[in-house]
Amino acid sequence: MTSRFTELTIDCRDPEMLAAFWCAVLDFEVIDRSEGKVEIGSWAPTAEEVRARQMPPTLHFIKVPESKSGKNRLHLDVSPIDGSTEDEVCRLLDLGATKADVGQGPARSWVVMADPDGNEFDVVRTLAPQRN
After folding, report:
1. What is this structure's pTM?
2. CB 17: neighbour CB atoms within 10 A?
3. What is the pLDDT of residues 48-84, one digit of tens each?
4. The CATH number of domain 7-63, selected from 3.40.10, 1.10.60, 3.30.720, 2.60.120
5. Which residues of the chain form CATH 3.30.720?
6. How many Å apart are CA 11 and CA 89, to the nearest integer?
7. How many Å is the Cα radius of gyration of the chain?
8. How far is the C-alpha of 39 from the C-alpha of 62, rounded, in Å?
């Protein structure tokens, strides 16, 4: 018997706004929505596909009344695929992210940011092809 990692749930004040932000960041689409909940992903999951193999998880944004407090115990890392880490940080700032300080100190190879609801995430090394 085994389980699959199928979705990551994020509590937030405005699921529609946060889903739109993360869709722009990850090139995901809304795959389900209901009152106070939005699910996004790169694919529409079916039970058969999930049973057959590990698939990329979806993100669920669930409306909660309280604001975020304290540092996240779990966060996402994103890797740019077609530009530099610095270029991606600029793009994410334009989308509404902010740079965040969680005590990481100076001169790191990643950049700590926060989404529009204050959830921290890291922009890590680029996966873009290196130009010679």
Report:
1. 0.88
2. 16
3. 888 888 888 999 999 999 888 887 788 999 999 999 9
4. 3.30.720
5. 7-63
6. 24
7. 16
8. 9
